[in-house]
Design a protein that fits this description.
The complex is a heterodimer. By secondary structure, chain A is α+β, with helices and mostly antiparallel strands. Chain A has nine helices and 23 strands. The chains are: A alpha+beta, B mainly beta.
């Protein structure tokens, strides 16, 4: 039924009023003669409204004459009649076509950019970044849709306080949805990774940037390991685009440390004498009172051992209250020549302290060399270890602009 | 003495092959959708039509449809569709 109605609209149809007696007769005539009639409605006892296809009206008129009824066309509907009306108003048609064309053409541009998630300076900064990447009022939708993913990625790199960013083009409006990062990380400037020590590379993991060395390479201190300048191809523009990024990675290398200690063979050692002076004192803030004491302190060399006992800590460090016990022990300093084993033990103890200070307990191998110089015993230790030698080196500023090169 | 009319051959064939009778014989087929739409196939013309009454002739007898705002949505040789608020359908003088 709906298909027939569509055909009727395309071929054009008429709404007809038929007047007279015995109207059922004309309905049966129309139905049996194969005319397609629909929406037959009795308006009054002697009036019938009928819809009929335009090309069937001629046959209907014959039937009406035969039955002695009267027919009147109420309205002409369907595409042929609409088209005829339009054809009569050519300027109007031209205007409608021009209006539709202009509307269609203008709807292929982006005129508004809405940012949801950022406000104030952040929003302005984001809009500037988007404009630099080509998303600004006046660009075509097609340009944006082709490079949407690329723009999103690049803006994410340039906007560290955004955790997610999505671009949606709705008609002439570009909607930018940003999810703001709660803890904004510090802005990391473009940098390279250089060698902090000389060594042989054993492991190289690049997180960001382009590696310029490989495992097994020997590098000197300051050599470039991972470059912070990356290049990628823009298939639309057929360009090579260079970007400066903060390079990051793990570069482990076998490195060697030379540690030296010099241990004296002759040392000064105290010899404690029986003369002792002991004093008890009380401190209250800056003031110090001697409470009592015994023994005698003569002129000479004394060794002082002070012990403290805090009575009241308090919030104010000036109001500290403490008991102090001073022990003055008379000493006689003697020059002592140490035995070889003692000197060696002292040297090993010193070198172990140095190894601990440098954090080299997990060394791979260790080579020791002893040398005597006058009254000193020198120990040189060469340690081989594996460690991360990656060191950040900031790149010089280039104004943050991209560098393009045409691929020939 | 009672006289019973013999069933036609087409009826016998339809029964034999277990076929639906309305496909074999031009009996009227009446499809009523709710109380809004009634479609009558194999009709024999409209006897009377008004906004409240539609009488449609069939081979078996007359079909009387009463209701409000009745419209002949489609009037073809094979089918008539009546739309409106249908209140009653009556088979008048059916054999």
């Amino acid at each position: 039924m709906h298909f027939n109605r569509l055909i009727s609209f395309l071929t054009g149809y008429l709404v007809i009023l038929i007047r007279g007696a015995h109207l059922e007769k004309i309905i049966n005539l129309m139905a049996t003669s194969g005319l397609y009639v629909w929406d037959i409605r009795r308006l009054e006892p002697q009036t019938l409204e009928v819809k009929i296809r335009a090309h069937g009206f001629k046959r209907l008129r014959e039937m009406i004459h035969r039955t002695g009824l009267h027919a009147m066309i109420v309205s002409k509907r369907g595409w042929p009649f609409i088209w005829r009306d339009i054809n009569r108003r050519k300027i109007f048609l031209l205007g409608a076509v021009a209006f539709t064309s202009v509307l269609f053409y203008l709807s292929s541009f982006v005129f508004f950019i809405n940012v949801d998630g950022f406000t104030g300076h952040e929003k302005e900064r984001l809009l500037n970044a988007l404009a630099r990447k080509g998303l600004k009022p006046g660009v075509t939708r097609r340009q944006i849709l082709e490079r949407k993913n690329l723009i999103e990625r690049e803006i994410m790199v340039d906007t560290p306080n955004a955790v997610w960013l999505g671009i949606t083009i709705r008609g002439i409006v570009a909607e930018i949805k940003v999810v703001k990062r709660k803890n904004t990380p510090h802005l990391i400037k473009a940098c390279d990774i250089v060698a902090g020590r000389s060594g042989v590379i054993t492991k190289l993991i690049t997180i960001r940037g382009i590696p310029v060395v490989k495992e097994g390479d020997s590098v000197a201190r300051g050599d470039l390991l991972i470059s912070g300048s990356i290049w990628y191809n823009d298939p639309q523009a057929n360009n090579l685009i260079s970007r400066e990024v903060p390079a990051n990675g793990i570069v482990e290398a076998r490195v060697w440390y030379d540690l030296n200690v010099s241990e004296p063979k002759i040392v000064w050692r105290p010899e404690f004498l029986p003369s002792v002076r002991r004093e008890y004192k009380l401190r209250w803030g800056p003031k110090l009172w001697t409470l009592f004491g015994w023994g005698e302190k003569k002129d000479g060399n004394y060794s002082l051992i002070r012990q403290r006992k805090r009575i009241f800590q308090g919030r104010n460090p000036i109001a500290i209250v403490e008991l102090i016990k001073d022990n003055w022990q008379e000493v006689n300093w003697r020059r002592v020549r140490l035995s070889d084993s003692e000197v060696r033990k002292a040297a090993v103890r010193s070198i172990n302290e140095k190894i601990r200070d440098f954090g080299l307990q997990k060394h791979v191998s260790k080579a020791m060399a002893w040398r005597e110089e006058d009254n000193f015993l020198k120990l040189m230790v060469t340690l081989e270890t594996t460690q991360d030698i990656a060191t950040v080196k900031l790149r010089p500023e280039r104004g943050g602009k991209e560098h393009h090169e045409i691929i020939e | 003495m009672s006289f019973q009319k013999k069933a036609p051959l087409s009826h016998k064939l339809a029964r034999l092959f277990d076929l639906p009778l309305d496909t074999m014989i031009d009996w009227p087929r009446i499809i009523l959708s709710g109380n809004k739409n009634v479609s009558i196939q194999n009709h024999r013309g409209i006897i009377e039509y008004d906004q409240s009454v539609a009488r449609i002739g069939t081979k078996m007898g007359e079909l009387l449809i009463t209701g409000d705002g009745l419209v002949l949505v489609c009037a073809l040789k094979e089918e008539i569709v009546v739309e409106g608020r249908i209140c009653n359908i009556e088979l008048v003088d059916w054999r």
